[in-house]
């Protein structure tokens, strides 16, 4: 069972990195075969509850947990492979069935209604991983989505999920590595991108320490170490670790693409536009994950260069922006929100005389919470502020057009974040208020207003103005719909409210 599951898991990891149809199909068939192997060892009574009439043997318990894991991974491949709604529903059913098996197994082991054998710790590790992963993932969803999921039988308790995963990561079992990797993803990506931008660096470093000692040249651990340094604002150290991660292995070139993506942002923080362009170009040539996004970023970096400066490889940003929509793709039947955003922004270049985007690289940097990274580095914040001031002067000098107010509000939002980083809180607040007061004049970039309210609320939190912050978060949550990157903004609102709720000084009912 474990040979079949692990082999299929390796193929699935490869498929998710290559994004090639043949690799996805091969992984799906191998995972289906692994599930059939697991099924041979399960008790045949219909429904797990019926199978609990008498204690399951050790082999049968392992068969259940391996079967649930196969089911979950097959669902992930279904979402990647097919774009129609029927396949999406089938994938959802697989996820639910997997969750129910994990849930019942967890209850079974807790009640000790099972036979303990020499490999019980590996069984416990499998259950901890499944239940922990589900609880942690579900806890990230905003309440309105979670209510629907709870109706379908799902529930999510973040602290409970984290506790199980930490327990699994520090134990000596087959899934301890999986638990550790999921936690590292949560600490360095999910809490950073879908949260308020802090990340959980201390926890990540603590978790990484033993793995870095055991696997000093382990590419995946070099990558997460680089990501941790990046969040801390240690950009040069992060660049070195990402470069070391690329050198550490050559078997999976696709792993390099994860490092290229982070290197692209590291050079963006430093306003090194040509270096950032270089990594965006590598991604556009080698990676299949989001060519529309990569081509957009190439164009964005070129547009940040002075008009007099030569473009690398003789490329033209206007032509690149015009090509962005041709690379649109779908995952689980939908285009990724970042691609939709890039395609919408690139439309300005369709006209014979295009209206330039003022700071497209910094706008996308904001979408990935990059201003939180530079908050630790006054020199980087100063560099970004100078770029924004140059763009602002160019905007004021240019003739007015239908995008002028949108562009002005974007620059104000980003300047507000820089002022906040510099400790000029009054100036930051004025920038955010000016964006909010211009909401009726904004023509296209309606996302600016709810995001501005979120930033203003976070500024109020830092100043101890909690009640005002909560009101603004509720206003951002309930008063604005159908804008670009809405789901990401809602995740940030949810994270901010959850953070306030966790504070003992705040009454739960207000949230």
UniProtKB/TrEMBL annotation:
Record Pfam families: Iml2-TPR_39 (PF10300)
KW Acetylation (keyword) present: no
Keywords on record: TPR repeat
InterPro entries, per the entry: IML2/TPR_39, TPR-like_helical_dom_sf
Entry keyword annotation includes ATP-binding: no
Similarity annotation: Belongs to the TTC39 family.
Name this polypeptide is given: Tetratricopeptide repeat protein 39A
Lineage, highest ranks first: Eukaryota, Metazoa, Chordata, Craniata, Vertebrata
């Amino acid at each position: 069972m474990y040979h079949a599951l692990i082999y299929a898991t390796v193929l699935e990891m490869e498929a998710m990195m290559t994004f090639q149809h043949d690799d996805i199909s091969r992984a799906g068939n191998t995972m289906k075969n692994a599930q059939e192997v697991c099924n041979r060892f399960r008790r045949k009574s219909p429904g797990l509850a019926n199978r609990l009439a008498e204690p399951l043997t050790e082999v049968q318990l392992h068969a259940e947990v391996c079967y649930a894991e196969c089911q979950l991974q097959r669902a992930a491949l279904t979402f990647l492979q097919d774009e129609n709604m029927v396949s999406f529903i089938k994938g959802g059913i697989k996820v639910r069935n997997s969750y129910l098996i994990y849930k019942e197994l967890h209850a079974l082991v807790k009640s000790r209604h099972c036979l303990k054998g020499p490999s019980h710790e590996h069984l416990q590790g499998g259950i901890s991983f499944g239940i922990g992963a589900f609880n942690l993932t579900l806890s990230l969803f905003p309440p309105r989505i979670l209510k629907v999921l709870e109706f379908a039988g799902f529930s999510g308790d973040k602290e409970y999920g984290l506790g199980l995963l930490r327990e699994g990561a520090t134990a000596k079992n087959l899934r301890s590595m999986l638990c550790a990797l999921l936690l590292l993803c949560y600490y360095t990506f999910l809490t950073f991108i879908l949260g308020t931008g802090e990340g959980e660096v201390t926890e990540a470093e603590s978790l990484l320490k033993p793995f870095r000692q055991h696997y000093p040249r382990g590419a995946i651990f070099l990558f997460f170490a680089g990501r941790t340094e990046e969040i801390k604002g240690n950009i040069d150290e992060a660049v070195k670790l990402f470069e070391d991660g690329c050198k550490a292995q050559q078997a999976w070139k696709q792993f390099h693409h994860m490092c290229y993506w982070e290197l692209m942002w590291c050079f963006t923080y430093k306003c090194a536009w040509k270096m950032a362009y270089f990594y965006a170009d590598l991604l556009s040539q080698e990676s299949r994950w989001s060519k529309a996004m990569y081509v957009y970023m190439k164009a964005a970096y070129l547009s940040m260069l002075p008009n007099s400066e030569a473009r690398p490889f003789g490329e033209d940003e206007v032509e690149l922006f015009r090509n962005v929509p041709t690379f649109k793709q779908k995952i689980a039947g939908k285009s990724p929100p970042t691609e939709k955003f890039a395609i919408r922004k690139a439309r300005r270049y369709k006209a014979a005389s295009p209206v330039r985007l003022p700071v497209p690289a910094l706008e996308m940097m904001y979408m990935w919470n990059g201003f939180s990274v530079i908050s630790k580095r006054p020199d980087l914040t100063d560099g970004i502020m100078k770029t924004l001031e140059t763009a602002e002067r160019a905007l004021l000098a240019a003739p007015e057009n239908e995008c002028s107010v949108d562009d002005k509000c974007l620059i104000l939002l980003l300047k507000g974040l820089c002022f906040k980083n510099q400790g000029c809180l009054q100036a930051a607040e004025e920038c955010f208020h000016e964006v909010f007061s211009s909401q009726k004049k904004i023509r296209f970039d309606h996302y600016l207003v709810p995001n501005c309210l979120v930033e203003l609320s976070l500024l109020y939190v830092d100043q101890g103005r909690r009640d005002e912050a909560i009101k603004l978060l509720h206003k951002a949550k309930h008063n604005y719909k159908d804008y670009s990157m809405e789901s990401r903004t809602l995740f940030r609102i949810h994270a901010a409210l959850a953070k306030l709720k966790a504070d003992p000084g705040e009454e739960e009912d207000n949230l």
